[in-house]
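Dissemination and training. As part of the outreach component of the grant, students in the summer workshop were shown how a complex can be specified as a set of sequence lines and then modelled as a single object. The example used during the hands-on session is reproduced here so that future cohorts can follow it. Participants entered these lines:
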Amino acid sequence: MKFATFNTNSIRARMPILLHWLKRESPDVLCLQETKVQDQDFPVEPLERCGYRAAFRGQKSYNGVAILSRSPLKNPALDLFEGGDEQARFISGTVDGIPIINVYVPQGFQVESDKFQYKLKWLRSLHDHISNRYEPHAPLLVAGDFNVAMEDRDVYDPDGFRGGVGFHPEEQALMEEFFKWGLVDIFRKHTTDGDRYTFWDYRIPNGFKRNMGWRIDYILGTAPMAEKSRDVWIDTGVRGMEKPSDHTFLVASLDI
DNA sequence: ATGGTCGGCAACCGA
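and obtained this result:
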């Protein structure tokens, strides 16, 4: 099974890259974030022509998540919170018997802001959701844009970012809770390399060329998934194309 | 080199 995640920063703006990548890589599952499209405008047809079913939850302008898969998504769920996730940041289901959760974690704006508190609350809720509904020794993949980097080797300027949003000990402690529960950062299982990023801020001039990035997108898996992972890699191949996203593809191959 | 990001969506907000 080939399993991938990609923050599109608008799926409609990214269709050329997305279709190109799907044809080239033929993943079984692709989790998307920041689709930025309402459900009635989701580009279902071109993806179907490419061989993919789509399950999605969007809203106007912001956020939005989708799971593309060759086999249909079973038992789709769209709500992280009991009262419903009004921000279209969560979608889950089962593909070929493997439970999958796809998330777009709130970015958090600034550490002093209410948005940062909402980010922490959202991460706590995700932990509760997972620990209440899943088993660490059973199959589960959790992928998406977590908007948190964990270690110095995961950002280009650790001393500059330390204590700031995306690189703050409170966020990192909540991420650690996922690992304590039993999820494994599958990229890290396969390499200790630093300077391997999935996101480059558009606002940094030539940030990609200068590799001034962050590793904030993840594929997490429970122990049976981590054991079956053959490789995980960051695919920057589409970055040479016109209009790349500020994120790139993170891909895992699993012996499933 | 006398500038310097995107996308959505129509003035700015969010990242």
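The longest strand of chain A covers residues 98-104. Students were then asked to discuss how this feature might be tested experimentally.
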